[in-house]
Write a structure and sequence with these properties.
53% helix, globular, homodimer, 203 residues, 8 helices, alpha/beta
C-alpha cells in the first residue's frame, strides 16, 4: 500500500493538483470526506467541524455552537476533540490498506509511521490572489482583502500543524517534494508530479 | 534555449543530483568551472576566489590575500568585485544560447530574466551529516562538528543570496521545485526530477 499526502498553501491549486494526481495514479482520493466523517462520528454539523478545524484561534472565541455561545475552555476542548477524531479518521483510511492520496488534515504527520510520500504545494502571493479571484465567481473582493484572508488561513494551518507535529508547516524538509505552481498549468504539474513520484520509488 | 539552476543545502547531494540531471537531459553543466573563470578573469587564485565567495563574513576579516594581511574595507571591496564578476560569468554562459544547468552561484537570481527552471535541493540534518561523513574519507570529524560546519556554510549561502536577490534562500517560492533527498537515492531522484521537468513544460 502506498500513501501520498498533499499539504498546500491556500490558493496554490494544491487541491486540484492532488485530485488530478490521484486520478492519474488510480489512488483513492480523500479531502472533504474526512470532515464529513468527523462530523458524522461526533454528531456535529459539517460546517462547524470545518470551521473549528480550519479557523481555530484565540480570535474565534467565543464561537457559537449551535444556538448557544460557548467560552474559551469549551472551544479548546472541542478543538482538541476534533483533532483527536481527525487523527482516528485519517488512520482508519490508512488501515484500509489501499493506495490513497489525502489532501490536508496534517496527514503527513498523522501517518508518519506509514512513510508516506509527502507533497507541499505553494505559490507566490500574486498567483494565489489571481487564482482565488478566478474561483470567486460573482463576488468582487479586492486583492488586499483576499491577501489578508489567504494569510489568515495559512496562519491557522501552520498553527494547527505545530500542535500535531515537531516540524514547521511549509518547511521543505517536512515533505519529499515541494511544488511551486506560480505561472504553471496545474494539469501539467499533476502529470509531472506523477512522473516524479513513479521514478523516485525506483531505488 | 532552456536553463536549469540548482541551489542546494550543503550535504544534501544537490551537486550530484544536478550533474546527473544535466547528463540525463544532455545539457551543458556548470559548477566549479564558474569559480575557475572568475579567478582567471580577475587574475586571482581559484581557492581564494572560492573562499571569498563561499565564506564571506565579518568573522573572516582579516583575510590573508597572497602573503599580506588585508583589512575589512579591502575584503568587502574584493567580495563585491567577485560577485560582480560572478554575475558576468553566469550571464556569459546564458548568452551562449545552449541548454544548460548551473549549480549554485545564485544563478536563479542572476538569470531571472531568462525564466530558468529553478530547483532547490534540501535534506534533514541527519541525512546531511551522514552524507558528509561518507564523503570525508580518511578524516574522523564528529557529527556535532560537521553539523556546525554545515550550518555555517548554509548561513553564508543565505547571506550571499540576500545580497543579490529579493527573496530568501531556500524559500520554496523562489524555486519551481524543491526536492528533499533524505533517505532517497540521488540517482532515482535525478531521473524523477528529469521526468518532472519534461512534463511541467507541457502547458
Amino acid at each position: 500500500m502506498k500513501i501520498i499526502t498533499v499539504s498546500r498553501e491556500f490558493g496554490s491549486g494544491g487541491r486540484e493538483l492532488g485530485k488530478r494526481l490521484a486520478d492519474i495514479l488510480g489512488y483513492d482520493y480523500y479531502d472533504r470526506e474526512i470532515i464529513a466523517s468527523i462530523a458524522a462520528n461526533k454528531g456535529m454539523d459539517k460546517d462547524f467541524v470545518e470551521n473549528s478545524l480550519e479557523n481555530f484561534s484565540w480570535k474565534s472565541i467565543p464561537l457559537t455552537y449551535g444556538r448557544s455561545f460557548i467560552g474559551a475552555e469549551a472551544v479548546y476542548s472541542i478543538h482538541a476533540e476534533l483533532l483527536a477524531e481527525q487523527n482516528n479518521v485519517v488512520k482508519e483510511i490508512a488501515k484500509k490498506g489501499r493506495d490513497c492520496l489525502i489532501v490536508g488534515r496534517n496527514a503527513n504527520s498523522i501517518l508518519a509511521d506509514y512513510n508516506p510520500f509527502n507533497i507541499f504545494v505553494c505559490a507566490d502571493m500574486e498567483a494565489r490572489v489571481k487564482r482565488c479571484k478566478a474561483h470567486e465567481k460573482g463576488t468582487d473582493r479586492n486583492p488586499d482583502d483576499l491577501e489578508r484572508s489567504i494569510r489568515k488561513i495559512d496562519k491557522n494551518r501552520a498553527r494547527t500543524y505545530a500542535m500535531v507535529s515537531d516540524g514547521n508547516w511549509g518547511d521543505p524538509r517536512c515533505y519529499n517534494l515541494t511544488v511551486n505552481t506560480s505561472g504553471k498549468s496545474i494539469k501539467a504539474l499533476a502529470q509531472a508530479t506523477a512522473e516524479f513520484y513513479k521514478f523516485q520509488m525506483d531505488m
